[in-house]
Amino acid sequence: MSPTFQELFGHPPEVVAQAPGRVNLIGEHTDYNGGFVLPMAIPQQTHVELRRRGDRRVRAFSTNKSASGEILEFELGQESTGKGWLDYVQGVTHVLQRSGFPLSGVELRITSEVPLGSGLSSSASLDVCLLRALREAFALKLDDVQIALLGQRVEVDFVGAPVGVMDPMAASIAGLNVALFLDTHTMRFERVPLPPGVDPVIINSGVAHNHSAGDYRVRRAECERAAKQLGVSQLRDLTEADLPRALALSEPLGRRVRHVVTENARVLATVEALRKGDLPGLGRLFYASHDSQRLDYEVSVPEIDLLVDLAREDADVYGARLTGGGFGGSVVMLARDGTGTAVARRIAERYAARSGQRPTILLPQPSGA
Ligand code: GAF
């Protein structure tokens, strides 16, 4: 049992806050290209308990298994300590102070149900949760979209992960069972409910990723290079009519462009299919998105492909795809109504037997989770 806030700091917290992880239904690697995304909140959340201090010291405790089990500390304004999760806490206080919001020191206890490196946005959930707790404690005048934009700055400016805006937007404004259809160029968004008759399933492959590491950064740089060579400010400005020109670029830029252009079109088609309740159509879009990520964008790994192949063999699954940044993480599937739990269990079992990995089922939420 991890210690309570009272046991750690000798008094109760003043503020408690939560923020969810997310699953992206479709629209992968489109957000940093000004494109469309379609994430949805998941039931797993990050929780923060906080109490203000009279000095400038931040004392923080994480109940996460990979944390040290000690209270870690820094002084407001101090440079990165390079201590993993503490960097996010420092990043949040750093961007708030840089934006002119006055803070004092705080005590924090952080708990997360969103598995790290699972492609389900554990870090944006932490950023948004900390920002929400600080907003409440210091009565900061920030709306939910501003919270999301600050969350993105934590990642890009402080942690050094050059991510887009999808994950903090999902953690800040998305809901359960309702997709957030977001245009990352205009920042216009709309909520699109999941139609009846479908059970979303999420299985974490057990292969962890890290977006401040090289591959994600390389993909982003390839997109920027391709946009420059094609004379547009972002790949969002291209259509399928531009693909022959894009495919004439040197390898692999053309394929990267093809993924982004076709993925944007798939998001729009998915929104239509959701509205019509066209479940087989949704399934086909999921598989097409996965194939595009695997072949054109090259962000899948064999374990993730195995999960998608097992879904293809399962008569109760409409479609499946890698969700999130890739290079590991999770697969999202759409199963027939009422079959989600059974589908998730049998695919996870077959996957474990064939891969030697230890998958976890996030959705449908296992009872007792
Ligand atoms: C990660 C990033 F954080 C997002 O911004 C997005 O680019 C995603 O990978 C890929 O769609 O989750």
The arrangement of helices and strands along the chain is: HEEEEEHEHHHEEEHHHHHEEHE
The figure for the number of domains is 2
**Widest β-sheet, arrangement of strands:** 1-3-6-4-5
Oligomer: single chain
How many beta-strand segments? 12
Task: Identify the bound ligands.
Answer: 2-deoxy-2-fluoro-alpha-D-galactopyranose
Report the average pLDDT across residues.
Answer: 96
Structural class: alpha+beta
Which CATH top level class of the largest domain fits?
Answer: Alpha Beta
Straight-line N-to-C gap: 16 Å
Shape: globular
**Main pleated sheet:** 5 strands, mixed
InterPro entries: Galactokinase, Galactokinase_CS, GalKase_N, GHMP_kinase_C_dom, GHMP_kinase_C_sf, GHMP_kinase_N_dom, GHMP_knse_ATP-bd_CS, Mevalonate/galactokinase
Organism: Cystobacter fuscus (strain ATCC 25194 / DSM 2262 / NBRC 100088 / M29)
GO molecular function, one term: metal ion binding
GO cellular component, one term: cytosol
Which structural traits does this protein have?
21% strand, transferase, 369 residues, 2 domains, binds 2-deoxy-2-fluoro-alpha-D-galactopyranose, carbohydrate metabolism, 11 helices, globular, Alpha-Beta Plaits
Topology:
Elements (H helix, E strand, L loop, with lengths): L4 H5 L5 E10 L11 E2 L1 E14 L4 E6 L9 E4 L9 H14 L7 E7 L9 H16 L6 H16 L6 H8 L4 E6 L5 E5 L4 E7 L9 H17 L12 H5 L5 H24 L2 H18 L5 H11 L4 E7 L6 E7 L3 H16 L4 E4 L6
Parallel strand pairs: 4-6
Antiparallel strand pairs: 1-3, 2-7, 3-6, 4-5, 7-8, 9-11, 9-12, 10-11
Helix pairs in contact: 2-3, 2-4, 3-4, 3-5, 4-5, 6-8, 8-9, 10-11
The protein binds 2-deoxy-2-fluoro-alpha-D-galactopyranose.
